[in-house]
Specification:
By secondary structure, this protein is an alpha/beta fold. The chain has a domain of about 130 residues: Phosphatidylinositol (PI) phosphodiesterase (TIM Barrel), CATH 3.20.20. The chain is about 30% helix and about 15% strand. It has nine helices and seven strands; from the N terminus they run H-E-E-H-H-E-H-E-H-E-H-E-H-E-H-H. Strands 2-1-3-4-5-6-7 form a seven-stranded mixed β-sheet. Helix 1 runs parallel beside helix 3 and helix 4 crosses helix 5. The chain is globular.
Length: about 260
């Protein structure tokens, strides 16, 4: 299914996942939009007129400079995605976070399934503050308000590569301004774990590195520090099996159908 779309999340529920992972950005009118990129990706999005987007110009279609009414007019599914050739082609718009949660919860209850967790990634880059996103405090406040209106805090995981975002959430939780949710540190580089933790300033609930950065010994050391280990993005069943055998606590994957029978 088209990525970060309502049909994709409902399909994931049908496949038996226990956590929906999604990325969020902010629109010009301060709506929380589910999208991997803070712009319209030329690989799979069409303009409101139905025309392709030039890859050299895709970042000009900056979601932070567009209202949600403008954003929802783009089609980000009907042309498919060459990187995922088995993806169904469906006309879909980038949804609001509140709408994803409402529709996923309604579908889950209709199917009489147990409660889901929602792993929300704040797509934040320090070099993009006030360009394609708000600064961490405003970004976080907008996301928190949607989440706390829609879900009990025990169903929420908040993750980010931007440690300034995670520090803000921790400070707000400690001050009693945010309810307690699980915090997950996304990691993509080879710095030692202790370096990351020193930079972060606290022990997160989850340590979430690129899967190729993990060994059995590293997983054991992370568990010893009191963190769960949930690597991203694991799409090869052989890699999934190795990580499961090495005692990871979960997998982030584009293909839950490949993981369900392992």
């Amino acid at each position: 299914m088209p990525e970060n779309s309502v049909p994709a999340f409902l399909k994931a529920i049908d496949l038996g996942v226990n956590t929906l992972e999604m990325d969020v950005v902010i629109s010009k009118d301060r709506q929380v939009v589910v999208s991997h990129d803070p712009y319209m990706n030329a690989a799979f999005c069409l303009t409101p007129a139905g025309t392709p987007i030039d890859k050299e110009e895709q970042q000009m279609h900056n979601l932070y400079q567009m209202t949600y009414d403008e954003i929802r007019r783009y089609d980000c599914g009907s042309v498919g995605n060459a990187a995922h050739p088995d993806q169904q082609k469906l006309k879909v718009a980038k949804p609001l976070l509140q709408d994803v949660i409402q529709q996923a919860e309604a579908y889950r209850k209709l199917k009489r399934l147990p409660a889901l967790s929602y792993n929300i990634e704040i797509k934040s880059d320090a070099g993009q503050y006030d360009i394609s996103q708000p600064k961490p405090a405003e970004f976080s406040d907008l996301v928190y308000q949607v989440l706390i209106e829609q879900l009990p805090p025990e169903q929420v995981i908040l993750q980010s590569f931007d440690f300034a975002v995670l520090k803000h959430w921790k400070q707000q939780i400690d001050a009693g301004r945010y309810q307690k949710v699980r915090l997950s540190a996304l990691v993509a580089n080879l710095k030692p774990v202790d370096t990351h933790l020193k930079e972060l300033g606290f022990i997160p609930d989850i340590y979430s590195p690129y899967y190729q950065l993990l060994s059995k010994n590293k997983i054991r050391r992370l568990h010893g520090k009191g963190m769960k280990v949930i690597p991203w993005t694991v799409n090869n069943p052989n890699h999934m099996r190795r990580l499961i055998n090495n005692s990871v606590d979960g997998l982030i994957t584009d293909y839950p159908d490949r993981a369900k029978n392992l």
